[in-house]
Write a structure and sequence with these properties.
This protein is mostly beta strands and 115 residues long. It has no helices and 8 strands. The strands form 2 sheets. A 4-stranded antiparallel β-sheet has the order 1-2-6-4, with no helix packed on it. A 4-stranded antiparallel β-sheet has the order 5-3-7-8, with no helix packed on it. The chain starts with a strand and ends with a strand. This is MSP domain-containing protein.
Length: 115
């Protein structure tokens, strides 16, 4: 296993008084991936999509939005699982609470809002 999925840019520079940050989720492997985005702080952070599919070698847009609030050490976790090319339901790979597939893992993005 190498780097199957990454985020570009890999950091989220949002101020504590709120704002948005645009990123690309990149599929680096030879399988289609289903993904799920989880946050350690749903009170302050939200994303434009929680579940999605990324074809081999493609990207998906991720927009992270922060509401004003006290800065703390938060993070986003992007879980992923390989799926068949015919898959159209990314949520099915996470029905048990953990990613299920031949290739599974997660990428963590640190969210450190500056005042």
């Amino acid at each position: 296993m190498g780097v199957e999925l990454s985020l570009d840019p890999p950091v989220c520079p949002i101020q504590a008084n709120g704002g948005t940050s645009k990123h690309k989720i990149i599929n680096h492997c030879d399988k289609m991936l289903a993904y799920k985005v989880k946050s350690s702080n749903n009170s302050n952070y939200s994303v434009n999509t929680i579940y999605g599919l990324i074809q081999i070698g493609f990207t998906a847009d991720l927009i992270i939005t922060r509401k004003p609030g006290k800065p703390q050490a938060d993070r986003l976790i992007i879980q992923f699982a390989s799926v068949e090319q015919t898959c159209r339901d990314p949520e099915a790979s996470f029905a048990t609470g953990q990613p299920v597939g031949e290739l599974c893992g997660e990428t963590i993005i640190k969210l450190s809002a500056a005042e």
